[in-house]
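Why do we care about 3D structure at all? Because function follows from shape, and shape follows, mostly, from sequence. That is the central idea of this module. The next example makes it concrete: a single protein chain, its amino acid sequence, and then its structure expressed as tokens.
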Amino acid sequence: MMAAGAPLDPRALDQLRTSLNQPVEVEGVVTSVGESKSGKTRYLNFSRRAGESVSLAFRTADTESVFPKSRLEALQGAKVRARGTVTELNGGLLIYIKEESALVRVN
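And the structure:
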């Protein structure tokens, strides 16, 4: 299911929190690419500091063939549109990307 209306700003945390456990679409510029200490999850971030935006999360066990690290790193500085369900983990907001069609480069 795709969210209706214009994509949300990934830094609009108050608006995104009202959409917890619901599908949304966000659009913004990727400012950094990160990885969990375990290497099991990779992230595309829309802000330099944790907690200032929603992050896109990729579980490597599920997405490595479609979103290898090199492909995610190539998105740094690019404008992207992503859709998925907003979840909260340790106070931060995440959208887990599970399929290729859920993430597109805009520019």
